Amino acid sequence: MEKRISVGVIFGGRSVEHEVSVVTGIQVLENLDLTKYKPVPIYIDKDGKWWTGDALFDIMNFKNETLKGLVECLPVARSNDFTLYRDPMTRKMFESKEIVTVDAFFPVVHGTNGEDGTLQGLFETMNIPYTGCGVVAAAVGMDKVLMKSVFKAEGLPIVPHLWFYRGQWAGEKEKLIQQAEAIGYPLVVKPANLGSSIGISKAEDQAGLIHAVEVAMSYDRKVIVEKAILPLREINCAVMGRDADLMASVCEEPVTWEDFLSYEDKYINGAKGGKGGKGMESAKRRIPADLPDEQTAKIQQLAKDAFRAIDARGDARIDFLLNGAGEIYVNEINTLPGSMAFYLWEAGGISFKDLCSKQIELALAAHQEKQKNVTSYDVKLYQRMGGGVKK
Question: What is the pLDDT of residues 70-115, one digit of tens each?
């Protein structure tokens, strides 16, 4: 029997999306193909400590706060060292330094300190294969300001918006209010670097705008104010692959009583429990979305264009806004969607298990290609230098 690939599934993290990440992580653990892969659960707690242990396989241990027998583990930012080590400050005298060695990482840490390129930078330093986007795509996909700038530069349709720093609001409040009102109410106000609809508010007037900005600033130093699309239809489409080899999923239309999907709509309303948790599967949605074939094809192409624009890879969900005239706007790309957006792929015949396998295959292929890059250029600079370095 061929040796199984050891896959470290990383979830949790120092993020307001911590619980969502735990659900996604356990869903992935439950859907890895055990004939090909050996799952290694790695949980990052809210203080940033890394843990591993069998208790992490069961969502009920999180729900009941019965996580027992976990071992704190540490990765090493050293090239080609894929071992997780015991913390030397807590390791007992006769305990082994090494806990487990992995062949690849499968990060599902949503939000800041995980989805934003920080973990990806560690993986690049370790020179280890990992699923999902690289450093740049993850960072751009997390920061809605940079994301919209890239989309605009690539000619993708986006809604009118403005953005500013928390510090600007303190000193230029009246000016920024005027700029926002020039866009026209109603407005949607968002933190630039959060997902799962956390910190998002709708403003109908100046008082609502001020309140919405205060809410957004409590989560991030950068705030986006954009034109609300009314009447609104939200359409989502996932994309999978890398470089020019991309495929788009069916489209979905989330159904909610609100003007935009809230955290509760996405993760709580309609949840039915279950061992692994339902995650984004529990949200109310129409799959496939009720759209003309021509409009569906246009959205799928725009989804691929947005994916390619930020140099994404792996699996991402692109969210669109449609107005009453049928005009399409790219809202954002989620480079690490809740529940891996598996429900979009299942609707097209790709199971959650196959989706996970494809992510690992993409990671291994991307890592193999990266090894072709020249990383050393010997020009004998030291020998060509004169009497030393000028002080």
Answer: 999 999 888 988 999 998 777 777 678 899 999 999 999 998 899 9
Residues comprising the chain, all counted: 391
Is 240 within 8 Å of 340 (Cβ atoms)? Answer: no
Contact 65, 324 (CB under 8 A): no
**How many Å apart are CA 270 and CA 122, to the nearest integer?**
37
In this prediction, the residues of the chain whose per-residue pLDDT falls under 50 are: 257, 263, 266-276
- Tracing tokens 């809605």 back to the chain, one arrives at 144
**Strands 37-44 and 50-52: what pairing?**
antiparallel
Pairing relationship of beta strands 187-191 and 201-203 according to DSSP bridges: antiparallel
Residue 2 DSSP label: P
- The gap between the terminal CA atoms of the chain, to the nearest Å, is 62
Interval 35-60: pLDDT, tens? 999 999 999 999 999 999 999 999 99
Interatomic CA distance for residues 93 and 45, integer angstroms: 26
Contact 116, 265 (CB under 8 A): no
186 prior amide bond cis, ω within 30? yes
Q: How far apart are CA 350 and CA 345, in angstroms?
A: 5
Which SS3 state, helix, strand or coil, does residue 140 take? helix
SS3 77: coil
Instruction: Answer yes or no: are the C-beta atoms of 223 and 229 closer than 8 Å.
Output: no
State the DSSP string of 81-131.
Answer: --EEEE-TTT--TTS-SEEEE-SEEEE---STTTTTSHHHHHHHHHT--BS
Give Rg (Cα) of the chain.
Answer: 22
**Three-state DSSP class for residue 329:** strand
| Residues pairing with 252 in the sheet | 236
Phi, psi of 84 (to 5 degrees): -95, 130
d(CA 283, CA 281): 6
Distance separating alpha carbons of residues 171 and 263, to the nearest angstrom:
31
pTM: 0.89
> How many Å apart are CA 110 and CA 15, to the nearest integer?
7
